[in-house]
């Protein structure tokens, strides 16, 4: 499981947790998140997220 | 004759804001070795400017808003970063950036130096008690000045004024907003949506004085007096001016680049001068000055492609502007001023769905507040793009 961070606002999408508020189930891999999904905090799209290392 | 430009000359980016760093990151995704240099008047810390109006809500100090310092960014992006360095001129004929007596050679130059805050008359903005917040350093100073005080007077009821009002209120401050407009966010929101946002902020405890302007600010010991043009006087501890931004154009105009409201560019972000590009808040792209995140990110990606050998005109679809007022979220696509149409609105409490339609029923813009913002994506798909995709040839 990986985490992806919004480069604009720092919001973190955690694959383990998904984002159930938008119907994205826990365990959903980043590539399976819908292409039109947007950052819940600032509204930018998937292309503005980057993978981050988990310590 | 102009000096020969070698391939080894760097692409020089002026500015270390979201525009500059996003461009550098996008270039590095495509080209690991092209020399890159960034010149910045600031300390070069990477941070997200939109987050400056969410510090209290998210419980973050100025230091905690820093994502990485200049040293870490330089390493990560394999780029030289000159911090605390102010560019004094541009010599496009020689492909030189001037820093005092020093001349720096560039292969291509990107102006990503942002916008200046609009100042109020000296009787107001001249006062040391008045802060404006346009970068992380300003924000740090503002937080220090706030210290243990409680009463904040905000001048300006635009997007930033409303975001700060909500954020400071969430931080427990007494907030009073003063603006000459009759509604919040004029020019961005139709009246019905603006009144919902104002009502929500009032319910949170924010006080509004609309339709009046600040005439003078006077320091009275520890306190500050704001004198209004209707004769009233407000007492506070700290005053914030948030009356808008204006693209920085002076150095560009001095170098004979074409400027209007911003630095004029085509859809490749190319200015009127060869090998000089403008990106972000300082740019006017085919007549559009859009000082928001989404157009900036799309522009940075297109420009990175162009600068790495694949000329790519930017395409801007309908880009909803999201206003970070947690007590009443807003998503809006303002219709172009030239478009004729009418607003149709549904309102229930502070939840508004307003759509702007042409005589033939085409959707030209919309404003959503409260729990109606959920319709943002569906409506955005119906609105015509800002810059249409190039016609295939």
Description:
The complex is a heterodimer of chains A (55) and B (393). Chain A contains no helices and 3 strands. Chain A is mainly beta. Chain B folds into 3 domains: 11-115 and 246-307, FAD/NAD(P)-binding domain; 119-243, 3-Layer(bba) Sandwich (FAD/NAD(P)-binding domain), CATH 3.50.50.60; 329-380, Enolase-like, domain 1. Chain B has a 5-stranded parallel beta sheet with strand order 3-2-1-7-19, with helices on one face. In chain B, strands 9-16-10-11-12 form a 5-stranded parallel beta sheet, with helices on one face. In chain B, helix 1 (18-30) packs parallel to helix 8. The longest helix of chain B is centred in the C-terminal third of the chain and has 15 residues, at 293-307. Chain A binds chain B through residues 7-10, 36, 38, 42-44, 47-48, and chain B through 18, 22, 25, 48, 50-51, 67, 293-294, 297, 301, 320, 322, 324, 331, 376-377.
Q: Could you give the count of β-strands of chain A? A: 3
Largest sheet: spatial strand order of chain B: 3-2-1-7-19
Shape of chain A: globular
Give the radius of gyration of chain A. 10 Å
- Helix-strand category of chain B: alpha/beta
Strand order of the largest sheet of chain A: 2-1-3
Mean pLDDT of chain B: 94
What helical percentage do the residues of chain B reach?
A: 10-25%
Predict the CATH topology of the largest domain in chain B. Answer: FAD/NAD(P)-binding domain
Structural domain count of chain B? 3
Structural class of chain A: mainly beta
How many helices of chain B does DSSP assign? 9
**How much of the residues of chain A is beta strand, in percent?**
15-25%
Largest sheet of chain B: 5 strands, parallel
